[in-house]
Amino acid sequence: MFPYPWWTDEQKRFAEEVQTFVRELIPIDVKSRWKRQFPWEIFEKISERGYTGAGIPKEYGGMGLGATGACIAAEALNIMPGPGRVFVGNMLGGLRQIIEFGTEEQKKRFLPRIAKGEIGAIVITEPFAGTDAAAQHVRAKKVGDVYILNGKKRFIVSAGVATRYMVYARTSDDPQDIANYRHLTGFIVEKGMAGFNVEKINEIAGFENIQNGVLNFNNTPCPVENRIGEEGEGWKVMTNGLNFERTLISAQVLGWMWEIIRYVIPYAERRVQFGRPTIDFTNNQLKLADLFIRYYTARLLTYYTAYLWDIGWDITIESNVAKVYNCESVLSSALDGIQVMGGDGLTPFYPLLSIMNVSKVENIAGGTMEACRLVILRSAMRKLKEHIKPQKRAIDKDLGVPVPVVGFTSTDEEPDESNVLRVLAEDYRVNPGLYMKVEDICEYFGCEKEKIVPVLESLERKGLVSLFRQKNQIMMAKATYEGLNEAFDFEYYRWFPFWVEKKNIF
Q: Whole-model pTM?
């Protein structure tokens, strides 16, 4: 685990310490996988070291190493795919919600417990709600000083072994609340609360020694003191927590990527076929190069995101980018690694099969690749809107082709029908297949939308423009063929490359 220059000395020392510590745990992990037993001994040893407090401030019993420290621990611990997944998804997965939305009393009550190694679980997915996380059907009804929870949650890592469960439930059916994502609330439900039970333990790919299951809430009373954030803030709490969880998932797969490298290269150096080590074959060398490319890129993405966390930036885009790239990359690396190792890679005698299986899980858990991509797109479109405006172009008088325009200024012309139609005709020459946005037309004339819309509507009635509407609002316009002919004569639109012999053009 090589450090980055921006890591503190404390973080660098922690990386060396936790890496050495984890190597001692690997035999325990492997044995527990073969026995299909939850590795309690591993978590007892992690608790003794206080590593679950890596991302917890020191004033609450943690190590105070920030998101970077949490990622360092996640990367190191995930050379053990099962226990590492529990560490990331559950022990640390609910941490940020408490830090950012919990009361001071809640921080003092829960954070020291996490720092001491208490196992927790994130509880979102339901039979009704998966990627559509807003569609929660588990209900929480306030009665006096408690909330009564009813419903089921599924695909919960550490179901049954966890003590603390970060649960999201519906607290409103008001259409306005639902439209504004104010219908959910977050709670910490604790093991032993009445009516709270494990219904089923699932068999999940890659979960040989850890549990995943279905939880049932039957009139379960959860005290108001265990509500995280205000009632109706659940969506905000959830998405903030998911950004942190996705950052940690990105770190955990780094451990898997390195284990692939650590096994595959020595294997290829020692496996002899056709009279030479298989690492000498070019096709294998290209696959091994890809293992390093993915690892180095994924690691940089992860720790850059963690650094932004630690200095207080919004990491919505970065955390989702890291999760998509890292989780898809580790699956590709597992498949490439198995291909290099051949049949041995498909046996449980090497860790690649387990890594491949749990890698596929992470393409779904903590936010599917598709959901993360939508978050990236929507967040980037909103955040970078002012930076991704189209380059203004105009027809060059000499060349007759569109070229970029520098220092665009609005015209003094009146935005009447004739001039607006001419602008649309000119846009046809520049962008023949595109509509022109109303705001672009407004910018050309230096006027407000209210002055352009009536003109466009009049041109539409005359069949000279085609208008594109959304929710009954005119968004874009394009000159029709009749409108092009009305604006200019045919020769205005004609253009040929200089090398075309015009005698062959009719």
A: 0.88
